[in-house]
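User: Predict the complex with 6-O-phosphono-alpha-D-glucopyranose.
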Amino acid sequence: MCGIIGYWGKRDASKVLFEGLKKLSYRGYDSWGLCTSSENRFSISKAVENIEHTDIDFSRFAGNIGIGHTRWATHGGVSEANAHPHLCPLEKIAVVHNGVIENFQALRTELKSKGHKFKSETDTEVIPHLIREYMNQDTGFVDAVRTALLRIEGSFAVVAINAEDDIMVASRRGSPLVVGIGDNEYFAASDIPAFLEHTKSVMYLYDNDVAIINDGVYVYNLSDMQPVRREVDSIEWDVEKSMKGEFSHFMLKEIAEQSETIKRASEQDPEKIKRIATWINNAKGIFFVACGSSYHACLSASYIFSAVAKMHINVVYASEFRYYKNFLCNETLVIAVSQSGETADVLDAVKTAKEKGSKVLSIVNNMGSSLMRTSHHTLHMNAGPEICVLSTKTYTSQLAVMTLLAYACIGNHNEGKSVLDVAQNQVYNLTSRSTRDHIKGLADILKDKDNIFTIGRGLQYPTALEAALKIKEVTYIHAEGFAAGELKHGSIALIEKGTPVIAFVSPVNEKETVSNVMEVKARGAYIIGIGPNNNEIYDYFIKVPETSYFDPITQIIPIQILAYKLAVLRNCNPDKPRNLAKSVTVR
Ligand code: G6P
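Assistant: Here is the predicted structure with 6-O-phosphono-alpha-D-glucopyranose placed in the model:
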């Protein structure tokens, strides 16, 4: 994971980098570091802390060129020594890296045998040492970076600078890297919000591109240094959208934005939706592949496709997809769903699908992401930047897009859109202050619990899974979701007096779900009912009006709010839960 940034321009680089890193800290926040270059020397600062909670003394830095990093540890513990940037032995080359160098041990052994001494346990440190090794053999800086990167097996997005000249080199393979082009100033970063306040002109780098930044951006192919042409796009996101505004946390802001983002997700080009519906209808075998919350959205969508379009869709965790490859052929359609478009497991699944000649459609939020570029066709969910590590608005946008597709498959795109309008209004009400206050009452009751169970049947089952994920990832309370009928087959043993059980109920499964609720109520469970109708067996009730196949969108909203309120009450950071990162670029 990790976030990287490079700046080349006219401003005080340390200030630009520091602010940029704050915007990237959702990608990892174990430690941070930055390095600027001026008059043949570097100024460096590193710390084991979340950069968002830091103040630094900018007078310690000089120069208009520099690089920065915010870390999610993979190789080596969380320590200052392991924080990036990493330097060459002469401390004249500095490198920041996002990715995993699979052959770093072999490279380290080789470099050690040549006398190199390492200061960290990271895989990254081999890069500046390799660069130095090649520069010692009379290779110029740019060629040395290139030769070093060609030795790397694994994934990287890298920005390197040399204290002894003004060139910045940025390159990627398998990890995201986007170049920002301003007025005589340039940025290279893992994600656009890092430099959005300075420019909206972006150039997406492709795998094996190397960008040389020196009074302009010159892009070459890493293997043969042939120039390659990359378009400059203008992006529509505004700075406001990537700021918290009046909200105390991004999580709350993004929850509140959902009625608007669902609307945007529903405004797809009808012709494109129609075309995609034809591919779905004509495919022989369809797979949804995704991870985390996106997987739960896919699972919901599989129920919706079954009910609306009478179509069977296989739903597979992206990390498990390779084990299904024998079922793929060139008539298979793989629908890869990912808010970031950078999840390594999803990209691997797409690779597997393409190797078998299958067609790949992606549903993505981040424009220009690796997934978008590697799939044959993309639907964009248009949710705008989601900064909180937890998926909220991107989850409901994914649901909106997939449900529209289900309706489009039976030629009823417009009906899908109308039902979605109703859901959107419900979401607006559900995110209002009065609902939030009602849910705060529940959070007060649950805040010291050790376990929470969530149950649901049919469409409500994936919502139960997503609800448990939301609660555990941000509150650290153990939470588990079940198909309501399954609880009695073992896990009911865990229910004791006062154990909270959240039941998602719809009129179509009310009778059966309420029976399952009775089973746990009889064993002392504290019941929270979520659905259109109250019931005397519920200890706490949150009313969510019925929205038919859009229930997964509306019923998750109270739980997103509950998870947020619980996190705040338990002093957990809602935007940056421990051990997590938003964009998981490791396998
Ligand atoms: C990480 C995030 C989750 C997300 C999952 C899949 O684990 O913390 O919130 O659901 O990745 O991410 P994607 O970008 O592929 O949707």
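The longest helix spans residues 551-569.
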